[in-house]
Amino acid sequence: MIIIKNKLFDELIYDMSKCEKCISMHSKSNVDCSLINIYENEKFAKEIPSIWTDWYNRLNSKIMIIGQDWGPFEDMKKLNGKYLEEPTKENWIKLMEDEKSLTKKQLTKYLVESSNGKIASINDIYITNAIMCGRKGNNYRGNNINLKCSTLNCKEFLLRQIEIVKPKVILTLGYYPLYSLSNIFGFNIEDNLTKTIKKYPIIEIEDFIIVPLYHPVAQITKEKQMEQYNRIWNYI
């Protein structure tokens, strides 16, 4: 089975390498919102796309996390360079463990605490994004990305990942990953995340569920955060 999944994922990366939908995108006010296709370098995309994940080792995960986007391509290049200095699994694990961002720290904390010992880290969870290309520049929060348009442009590639991994639970971080899934599977969501979580705390799709989560560093109480995380393990 894993050989088949690897082959399907190889084909997915190849198809993403040919996509040009977001490489020359501008906003209505002519802000450059074009993205960088990281999959044109197939070796780079396969080896280490982000500090968050080593895709090929996680294709049998029961849980899939979908974030918004990878962030600046420059950060991804630096990470890839550190990996290539010593291209071993041990170095890759070290690079992942060295990542101390607040987002990763809080996400790990909520998942581990809510699991009651079922997991010790997020290193076995399949992690991807609604927007698959890298941002220009060095800013994670700038207006140099058209979130809605790029999310919709990537939805085919997100669906194919779901079909390959076949998770039991999908966790969405923030609004746009959920927006993508609502377009893929045809379910309704509200016009903001808080209202959506209140109305649809769990969304059942075929043989898996979607649990919409607040972003791990959002200004939400821990109690509210944990309400959603606890639903993951109740289902599994």
List the helices and strands and how they pair.
Elements: H1 2-17, H2 42-47, E1 63-69, H3 73-85, H4 89-98, H5 102-115, E2 126-131, H6 147-153, H7 155-165, E3 169-173, H8 175-185, H9 193-199, E4 203-205, E5 208-213, H10 222-235
Parallel strand pairs: 1-2, 1-3, 3-5
Antiparallel strand pairs: 4-5
Helix pairs in contact: 1-7, 5-10, 6-8, 7-8
Overall description:
The protein is α/β, with parallel strands linked by helices. It has one domain: Uracil-DNA glycosylase-like domain (Uracil-DNA Glycosylase, subunit E). Helices cover about 45% and strands about 10% of the residues. It has 10 helices and 5 strands. The chain has helices at about 1-15, 40-45, 75-85, 90-100, 100-115, 145-155, 155-165, 175-185, 195-200, 220-235; strands at about 65-70, 125-130, 170-175, 205, 210-215. A 5-stranded mixed beta sheet has the order 2-1-3-5-4, with helices on both faces. The model has no long low-confidence stretch (mean pLDDT about 90).
